[in-house]
Amino acid sequence: AQSVTQPDIHITVSEGASLELRCNYSYGATPYLFWYVQSPGQGLQLLLKYFSGDTLVQGIKGFEAEFKRSQSSFNLRKPSVHWSDAAEYFCAVRAGNQFYFGTGTSLTVIP
Amino acid sequence: NAGVTQTPKFQVLKTGQSMTLQCAQDMNHEYMSWYRQDPGMGLRLIHYSVGAGITDQGEVPNGYNVSRSTTEDFPLRLLSAAPSQTSVYFCASSSGLAGGAGELFFGEGSRLTVL
Fold first, then answer.
1. What is the pLDDT of residue B101?
2. pLDDT at B45
């Protein structure tokens, strides 16, 4: 069965520090992978996606993610976090006509 | 440039009442879906549709009905609300896999409380 695991429920980083959010997926075929961000009381906004080609993908707001097939991972990174990055982050995999989401990682940014 | 529009944004129901959450998209997307978001559970798929007249169940379909009579609209019906259906509901649409990954575009959510 398809699934997505985000092992970190909550992460706290200092402003200006680097960030890595972990995502592992379970899916038999070539995955379509996504990272979304959700600010409080808002819908989800796409940060970046992977479906083929270069395994390092660039997204909006300075985020990037790397697809590693051997590790079934799609970790999200940002070299320098801004206070406005505080939000909930969701990793997702598309399997046919269904999307599977992780349980999310809540990011707190301290000044 | 509306995208995905959900109404209402907030609703309080009593147990046993019925209601419909409305969802409309103006991007001519064939794929539409409904999710519920609960603390610590992420987003779980309720129902989805790959085109007008075609619907299918997702992970948590019990207690919910959908129909798709037009490309633009995909309403979600609660026939007899239960407290377990207290949640935030999101509608999302996608252009499908053609030409890319077919990412989801989300509405702003509808917060439902069942007393």
1. 66
2. 94
**Residue A102: closest CA among chain B residues belongs to which residue?**
B42
Chain A residues whose beta carbon lies within 8 Å of the beta carbon of residue B50: 97
Percent of chain A with pLDDT over 70: 100
Give the residue on B whose Cα is nearest the Cα of A37. B106
Give the mutation candidate from B7, B89, B103 for the A interface (greatest A CB count, under 10 A).
B103
* Cβ distance of A101 and B107 shorter than 8 Å: no
The pLDDT value given to residue A42? 86
On whether any CB of chain A is under 8 Å from the CB of B99, the answer is: no
3-state secondary structure chain B: CCCEEEECCEEEECCCCCEEEEEEECCCCCEEEEEEEECCCEEEEEEEEEECCEEEECCCCCCEEECCCCCCECCEEECCCCHHHCEEEEEEEECCCCCCCCCCEECCCEEEEEC
- The pLDDT averaged over each successive group of 10 residues in chain B (115 residues) is 91 97 95 94 93 94 96 96 97 79 90 97
